[in-house]
Amino acid sequence: MTGAGMTVWFGVLGTIAAWRDGVPADVGHAQQQRVLAALLVDAGNAVPADVLVDRAWGEAPPRRGREALYGYVSRLRRVLSQMCATDIERTPAGYRLTVDPHRVDMHQFRDLTSRARGQGDAGQAAALWEKALGLWRGEAFTGIDTPWFDSRRDLLDRERLTAELDLADARLRLGQHDRILVELLARAEAQPLDERVAGQLMLALYRGGRGADALTHYQSIRGRLVEELGTDPGPALRLLHQRILGADPALDLAPGPGVAVDEAAAVRPVPRQLPAPPATFIGRDRELASLDGLLKEPADDRAVVVISAIGGVGGMGKTWLALRWAHEHLDRFPDGQLYADLCGFDPSSEPMPPGMVLRGFLDALGIDTQEMPADPEALAALYRSLVAGRRMLIMLDNARGADQIRPLLPGSATCTVMVTSRSHLSGLTATHGCQYLDLGTLPDDDARQILVHALGHDRVAAEPDAVSGLLRRCAGLPLALGIVAARAAARPDFPLTVLTSELHDAACRLDALNAGDLATDLRAVFDTSYRVLDHSTAQTFALLGLAPGPDISLSAAARLTALPAPRARVLLRTLESAHLVQQNIPGRYRMHNLVRLYATERGHDLPDDVRQAALHRLVGFNATTALACDRLLSPQRTPLAGPRTASAVGALHVEDVDAAMAWFEAEHLCLLAVHRFALEHGLHAQAWQLAWALDTFQWRRGWLLDRITTLRSTLPALEVLEEPASMALAHRLLARARIPLDQHAEALEHLRRAIALYERAGDRAGQAQTHLNFALAWERHGDHAEALSHAVRNLRFREVLGDPHREAEALNAVGWYHAHLGHHDQARDYCERALALCRRHAFLEGEAFTLDSLGYIAHHSGSHAQALDHYGRALTLRRRLGDQYEEADALACMGDVYRATDRPADAHDVLSRAFDLYRGQHRATEARRAQRLLEELKPALPARASDGAESGTVPDVAHRTA
After folding, report:
1. Nearest Cα to Cα of residue 904 among 913, 912, 895
2. Pairing state between β 306-311 and 435-438
């Protein structure tokens, strides 16, 4: 372990070495040093074993390369553990040396040179470069000769030479030409064709009063270039030659010792290329504040180029936001602003090559076209030289990807780069630390203000419903809002309802969002994002547009596209990077409403067989998975009968009850949409499977109206299937859903139809369960005697049918109705028999119902402590099952016991929780009762406790948003 204050360093800029508190440490023989060096190059990152073998031995690995590697790694671990806290970790991605990269001379060298290049003060920059170059102890990786190390050595040699030249530039700016003249003469002899070296030597000679020697050296390098390469010197060196010939005063040192000189300052133009700011700009305060944070000083002393990227789908207002911010901060960029539309997603042109953009930038910076080098790298180098040290903004608008941007990045931290793109540009984040701002839709208030500004307050206020419709159809997309505003403003005599009705039809909404040219045609804007996708990604996008539901999971998308999940994830990530889908939560994907319309259009362009097969796969996947999850929620439930039940092939594997509830929770709205789709497209069997499989989950969540809607809409499909047993079951389930909603007549009608169908089919189990539902209906209606008669009939069936779960359920029902009729001893006997049967067969749901019954019996027999015990156990089981519907009732029953035993605070607590659940389940009758009891408890509570009770009118039962 490293002691307090102990420092450990590693070196590769010379022989491979390690030091502890400045004292060399033995890191083993040459082969072991190779492995250490290979890890040090990627300090802190995992390196696969095969890569390490290739690095260390190249084309001549040991016979058992991996075994040899393991041995060296093991020995290195022992060495490192003795000298410091550093270790070599084994990870799934490979071996990782856990050392701070700044403790490795190579990484320290690169960090120092990066900081030096971003330093505006020449003296401080020179000190950093000197410190960086002082880390070298000879040739990098001395003594190691493999192809990989040779390539790394060549790269580091070039970085070292660049740092030496950068230091020479700083010394020249500081007026220290005499100090480095000998060094420059030697370097020019070693690098006779390097124009940058030649320029430094010429400037040093000229400032030292040796102008003739400077001109002679120019002629010398010119002759060599012509003779050996067949080319003249580049524009920068030719310009320096002309300025020396003309004795340009800008080349002379400013008066006073130690004053830095910028030799080109006198002739630099100041470009002002930004387009005009948007005439109307509303909202985006949070985003503007985020961009303002770019101008703050870095938290550490490392100066780097600030690069910010604004991303979002086409039409989201990226360019407007960037221009608004840039014009608000022009004073921060006194040396100019460069702008280029990279046409990455332009409907009328191809993406702009970086070389063409560089030529435009160089022209704006005062370089004559004839002086611009032909080589792209030379162009980029000249551009970086000209903007170095200048406080400039470079705006790169509408970029296709990171490769288009990288050649345009300055090397000086005094510059700020602003990028807009429909691509995510994660590659630029990885390589250059780009700060990313994902632009979302506008809030409703800001969207409304856009219409108010364009149309006037009076016109907007005069048609509130029409305006709400326009806002809803534009879905917060600024371009769509702008198009709508422009079209409405062009016809001030037309009511806004005309435009609203045009946008109402989803099939032609994109036709309406067109203001007359490519830039204001929303479909054309989306086209430019779509056409750059490869075939597989484009087809995935189109199929997603057809998928029913507000979003889609990765597993469902994989079934839709018939792709393995890892491949589907890659394609979804590509679409996410293009801002055509959003991963709203991990593993779930959705589209902006207008993008979804465009994707649907593309989906209908697919061949019929491709489209139909994909949607049938999706419906089948949802149906089979729903059936499997329902089996986990209610294993005692009689499996869905009939020859048309779905195969479980392709179903998602779900582990347990919690996972099944979570799946239903996440997929519920999608399942409802898939159910509607199945009905509309004649997939009757799958529609019935979905309706049946949803029943348990919807009951436990208390979503009875969804339950009724789903089942009722399925009845016509069951008539087509001609399955009487399924029809009977659907009617019985519909009745069960209507009973708690006090729809007594409708429930009885469904039950009569169910019992008739069951009797016709000779289905005794179906008849039994229907009698139990009759009992529930009459109980809700207040007739417990009639309820008991049906419960007894149910029990008679169950006693001979051999189903212990249903027999336990029947025993409990008979006991329950005896209890309500005051027959407590008989009730307790039936319920205790039911409880024993439930526990013997691990029937948790039945056990919870029976404990509720026993709690009721104990409460009404005066055994309040026993009642609370029973209800508490039932509540625990309800929560374990995820049954929020019955959880609410258990809490309400506990509240009744607490009220009876004069415990108002406890009663208030459980009734408040029951009230919240009842409201969420739209159970108005139960919610009103709980609220009334809470009001009655208030006088007996301390002020703080009573404040928690909610007051007001309980809303009528309403359908959940779906």
Report:
1. 895
2. parallel
Q: Would you list the DSSP string of 843-899?
A: -HHHHHHHHHHHHHHHHHTT-HHHHHHHHHHHHHHHHHHT-HHHHHHHHHHHHHHHH
CA distance 868 to 458: 63
- Find tokens 């204001």 and name the residue: 520
What contacts 169, CB < 8 A, 6 or more positions away? 200
AA letter at 288:
L
Cβ-based burial of 129 (10 A; exposed 0-12, middle 13-18, buried ≥19): buried
- Strands 17-20 and 8-11 turn out to be antiparallel
In the predicted model, is pLDDT for residue 603 greater than 90? yes
477 within 8 A of 526, measured Cβ to Cβ = no
What is each CA distance from 801 to 763, 768, 804, in whole angstroms?
11, 10, 9
Q: Is 823 left (phi over 0), alpha (psi -120 to 50) or beta?
A: beta
**pLDDT value for 641:** 63
Question: Which residue's structure tokens are 């009905």?
Answer: 679
Q: List Cβ neighbours of 565 (8 Å cut-off, separation of 6 or more).
A: 554, 555, 558
List, in order, residues 6 or more apart from 653 with CB less than 8 Å away: none
Of 433, 389, 434, 377, nearest to 166 by C-alpha is 389
* Residue at token pair 């000197």: 130
* pLDDT single digits (tens) 676-686: 999 999 999 99
pLDDT for position 299? 46
User: pLDDT > 70: what percent of the chain?
Assistant: 93
Q: Residue 418 in 3-state DSSP?
A: strand
* H or E, element range at 11: strand 8-11
Averaged pLDDT score across all residues of the chain: 85
Tell me the pairing of strands 337-341 and 94-97.
Answer: unpaired
Q: pLDDT tens across 914-939, in order?
A: 999 988 888 888 899 999 999 988 88
Indicate the helix (H) or strand (E) that contains 267: none
The residues with which 25 forms a beta bridge, in sequence order, are: 18
Cβ atoms of residues 646 and 620 within 8 Å: yes
Q: Please check the confidence at residue 125 and state whether its pLDDT lies above 80.
A: yes
Partnered with residue 588 across adjacent β-strands are: 553, 585
Report the run of H or E that residue 475 belongs to, with start and end.
none
User: Do 558 and 523 touch, CB atoms closer than 8 A?
Assistant: no
Nearest to 104 by CA among 19, 191, 40, 33: 40
Residue 61 has pLDDT above 90, yes or no: no
Query: Would you say 367 and 271 are in contact if contact means Cβ atoms under 8 Å apart?
Result: no
Q: Among all chains, which residue has been given the structure tokens 């049938």?
A: 616
Half-sphere exposure (Cβ direction) of 419: Cα atoms closer than 13 Å = 32
All structural domains of the chain, each given as residue ranges with its CATH number in brackets, are 1-174 (1.10.10.10), 285-438 (3.40.50.300), 444-521 (no CATH), 533-606 (1.10.10.10), 866-946 (1.25.40)
Report long-range pairs for 605-608 (Cβ below 8 Å, ≥24 apart). 605/542, 606/539, 606/542, 606/543
DSSP string, 343-377: -TT-TTSPPPPHHHHHHHHHHHTT--GGGS-SSHH
Q: Is residue 186 pLDDT above 60, yes or no? A: yes
Measured between alpha carbons, how far is 512 from 506 in angstroms, rounded to an integer? 10
Tracing tokens 């499997």 back to the chain, one arrives at 628
CA distance 280 to 485: 12
